[in-house]
Amino acid sequence: MQETRLIESKRISEEVDSKLLEINEQSRNYIHDVILIINKEKGMDKVLSIILFGSQLKNHSKNKENTVLSDCDLLIVFKDNVSTSFLRKLEKYLIALENKHNFRKNNSNFVNKMLDVMQQTTGMFVSHFLTKKTYFESGIFHKIFSVNKILSDIFAPKKLVLSSVVDNSSVLWGEDLRDLVKEKVEIEPFDMIKSISMNLLISLLCLLFSPLKIFKPKYQLEAIKWSLRAANHYAFEDSESLEIIIRRFIMIEKSTKNKIKAKRFYSKFIELRRNPHIDFNFMLRCPFRIIKIHIKGIWFKKIKIKTKKRSKNI
Question: pTM for this one?
Fold first, then answer.
């Protein structure tokens, strides 16, 4: 039985390998270990789909979106008959794998442990998400991403995130279940309000606690990235690389002066993603830029709707 599972695990790893040619070695090794663990503990026949999304995707790797801050966003959809207790057990194994492959650090002090809890409850800098087919097809956000239900109901722009993940992803193995979710997701303007609230809160907390050096620069950088992705998906209805999204948001600035300011901000943003360190001047500008990104996204969407109406009337 064990030998059969090892053969099956090798076969699946080889199949997945063909889709990971553009992905860095760290992520490839992590994904292989995830498959080995699942196959050993339960068997890959219990998995319906393995979906990769985010900065590790081929088109994003080419645009150098993958940096030292990038995690490996894996969404693993299991059959409904897999028990919740098994998923909890597997969760612990995969957290250990994230430590092994340097996607997270095994923190011992109290503050870092609290930050780990925050990451786990928000899904920020987490490299695996375990769910069941029913939850995925129904678009039940907190069950898909294993986040706190109350926090996700208040702050998470759930429909925006789900739609973005579906569009900005690749099926590494198994069935393609993404269209089943896409049919049920209808993005609303209120999602943009929630996105502003969530990312602004993260940014302000980073500023508030910056003298204590509790929040690392990566949290504020992630808030900017999430803002750009949310506003872009709302306005342009696609999931392009950060490089293209940034070009768009510089382009839709009204004046040359604002274009120059935006270009400087995003150049610093890219620089800090590649070489994270505290830049207090940048941190002070982040809350204002988060608000502006969302306002620009809402404004551009309105322009698009008006243009479509005019073209229909002609």
Answer: 0.86
